[in-house]
Amino acid sequence: MTPIQETIITKKTTNKPIWLMRQAGRYLPEFRKIRKLNSNFINLCLN
């Protein structure tokens, strides 16, 4: 079973899986403003 599957069924895990919804806000004005300030996706995540 993958860490995400274990998390979904609320099983205690040592890892903390994360997942990104990259396209979730692509067209929102707020997202576009923030995106303009960051040259790439990694910078967007880190800032």
Automatic annotation (TrEMBL):
Signal peptide: none
Pfam families: URO-D
GO biological process: porphyrin-containing compound biosynthetic process
SUPFAM superfamilies for the chain: UROD/MetE-like
Entry GO MF terms: uroporphyrinogen decarboxylase activity
Domain Uroporphyrinogen decarboxylase (URO-D): 17-26
PROSITE patterns reported for this sequence: UROD_1
The protein, known as: Uroporphyrinogen decarboxylase (URO-D) domain-containing protein
